[in-house]
Amino acid sequence: MKASWRKIIAPYEKSSVKRSIWQIINTLVPFFLLWYAAYWSLSISYWLTLIPCVLAAGMLVRAFIIFHDCCHGSFFPNQRVNEVVGTLIGILNFCPFYQWRYTHCVHHATSGNLDRHGVGDIWTVTVQEYLAMPRIKRLAYRLYRNPIVLFGLGPSFTFLIEYRFNRKGAKRKERLNMYFVNISIVLIIGALCWLIGWKAFLLIQGTMFLLSSIVGVWLFYVQHQFEGAYFEKGEQWNYVDAALKGSSFYRLPRILHWFTGNIGFHHIHHLSPRVPNYNLNRAHHENPLFQDVTPVTLLSSFRSLTFRIWDENRKKLMGFEYIKRFRMQQK
């Protein structure tokens, strides 16, 4: 199996400098134009400003996918170019390159592994783990899983506060990258507040950031929290199954695939992070192996909001209401 999928996916792992540069242009140029349009429209009505803000938020999501590919070293053939471009685009999303690359690579290596879950993941515990928690930790888990926290307060805390500090064990290169990103963010915000005023900046950038962060976390959530998701203990865990079964194919309208950088083809991305986002669509449609998965549609994806906890007996994600039934079954 391993030899066959490696042979199938290898041709799609080649990045194109021309396509990468064009993607940067068709993402960042519209983003900056929309930012200016939002500022211009603010003098007329904030409701009018919402239109370019929503579109710009979509461009921020697309820019994050470029950043994401750079972290995997798949966007450009040259690793140094990936690091420079990834760092600069990461500033737009308030995201430090080297720290995020570390935690995300851990996520790829352990996704769906119940013995190693926790780094770079959506916090997911089994029913048995939940019942063994102290009461205060159960409350913390329930709060974390609340949609208001998970998609609202959580992303704001992570991108605005958590990503401003180095992680424990960070090496010199990673720490310096964090300092550079933080200083750049402060200088850019300071300059914009001086030019247009802090109220205008918050109304524009705040709206864009809030919308893009909600969409970004939602995408990450749906990619691993869906009907038929895959979680296994260390010995039973398998990399290929974790990719093709534990990472969703989020089938979206074509325009949404464009804004989200084809990240909906997440099963292929987890199989090989070396495939740049602009090759994922082609890889999926040209190979039956990648089509033999149950898609998550835009409508069915909202069902994942009811998923809270993993039941090892049923091998499926359940809601919190299942805890009571489980306890009764154990009596």
Helical segment tally? 16
Compute the gyration radius: what is it? 21 Å
Would you identify the regions where 5 or more consecutive residues have pLDDT less than 50? none
Arrangement of strands in the largest sheet:
1-2
Q: What features would you describe in this structure?
A:
Helix 8 crosses helix 10. This protein is mainly α and 331 residues long. It contains 16 helices and four strands. Helices cover 64% and strands 3% of the residues. The model has no long low-confidence stretch (mean pLDDT 93).
Summarize the structure.
With 331 residues, the protein is mainly alpha-helical. It is built from 16 helices and four strands.
Notable characteristics:
16 helices, globular, 331 residues, mainly alpha, two-stranded parallel ribbon, 3% strand, single chain
Write the layout of secondary structure elements.
Blueprint: H1 2-9, H2 17-42, H3 46-71, H4 79-92, H5 97-110, H6 127-132, H7 135-144, H8 147-160, H9 172-196, H10 198-224, H11 239-244, E1 250-251, H12 254-259, H13 266-271, H14 277-285, H15 288-291, E2 296-297, E3 309-311, E4 316-318, H16 321-330
Parallel strand pairs: 1-2
Antiparallel strand pairs: 3-4
